[in-house]
UniProtKB/TrEMBL annotation:
Superkingdom in the source lineage: Bacteria
Spans traversing the lipid bilayer: 12-31, 37-57, 64-84, 90-110
Protein's UniProt name: Uncharacterized protein
Keyword terms of this UniProt record: Membrane, Transmembrane, Transmembrane helix
Species the sequence originates in: Pseudoalteromonas rubra
Amino acid sequence: MTKQVVIHSSLWVIFSFFYLSGLQAALVLAIDGQEYPSIWITLLYTFAFNLLVGHIITKYEKLFPMIAGAVISVFGVVGFGCYFTERLVGYSSELIIGLTLSLPFATFIVREFKQKSYSKTQ
């Protein structure tokens, strides 16, 4: 089981770099789409993007989707976004925290929705 977690974690770290690219595009669109940008509206718009990413995570990661969402989020936003590539350095700390927490929450919502939908069809 630990070997599976290590293998999956390395895939999640790689995916987190690509997640950062999509998140950065969604973030720019969310901010540019507002006349007077607000952190709450920006988080709401990027949450829609995270719901789509959460769907992909729950579709392809069958063993640990919640852990995958957390790892992808932390490595994508904090690891690659703030430290390695510094693409998200100019944004506020509150927005960075919100973006980091958003993907695990979106993955949880998508997973619960899929489980309820699956149980209704049974």
